[in-house]
Amino acid sequence: MAGDVPAYLLGALDAGTCDAVAEHLEDCLECKAEGRRISEAIGTLGLLAPAAPPPADLRGRFLSSLQSGEPAAPEMEAAPSRQPRWMRYVLAVAAILVVALVGWNVMLSRDLSQSRADLAALRQEHNQGLAMLADASRAIPLVPKNAPDAHGMLYLSPDSSQALLMVEKLPPAQPGMVYQIWLIQGSESAPATVFHADTGGSTMVMIDAPKPLASYQSLAITQEPGPAGSPAPTGPMVANLPLS
């Protein structure tokens, strides 16, 4: 029944089906809401039509009605008893186009909302990074292992559980793999976060540890299966740095 709503709004249904759809719309809130969206889209289509010029004899008939004191009755043409078959096809195609237009508008609205959310998240991360750089009292250089060109710096305050890691020239991660940061204390390696580097191997990563970073011995980076990484290190160490 929901598929007949566009044709119903365009008047392309027979009397029996039209009555059935009208009765369905009274009880179905979802179809009623869809009908409102389609009606709004149909309304916008009317704005695309050029304005039609008035009939040439309109002025004369209007003046004659003023002189006689009675309004001139417009000439009415007899309405056809049924729609031509080609008109039904046109209306059906128009209904499909209207539904597609509504769906496209909904998709664009969702994409725009997601883009705004992503931008807000990036802005928040950027602001957090700037604040952490301003508060950092210690900078520890990254020591490359299996990535000889990689270099970077960890910015932190010893009594803080948060830090900012900035890395450059990391090699591209293998297909299906991500970089993962580990906080090491003795024989235990606690997963911190996963990240990706850009095409130049650069990235900025916010680290939020469960306890102050000074309580760990070191930080290490490995490649692990994506997208969530591993519960324990499985790949070779890419780089590391001391924390205490």
TrEMBL record:
Compartment(s): Cell membrane; Membrane
Location of the Anti-sigma K factor RskA C-terminal domain: 91-237
InterPro entries: Anti-sigma-K/W_factor, Anti_sigma_zinc_sf, RskA_C, Znf_put
Coiled coil: none
Keyword Cell inner membrane recorded: no
Principal cellular location given in the protein's record: membrane
Bilayer-spanning residue ranges: 86-106
A cellular component term, taken from the record's GO annotations: plasma membrane
GO MF, one example: sigma factor antagonist activity
PANTHER family referenced in this protein's UniProt entry, alphabetically: ANTI-SIGMA-K FACTOR RSKA
Protein name: Regulator of SigK
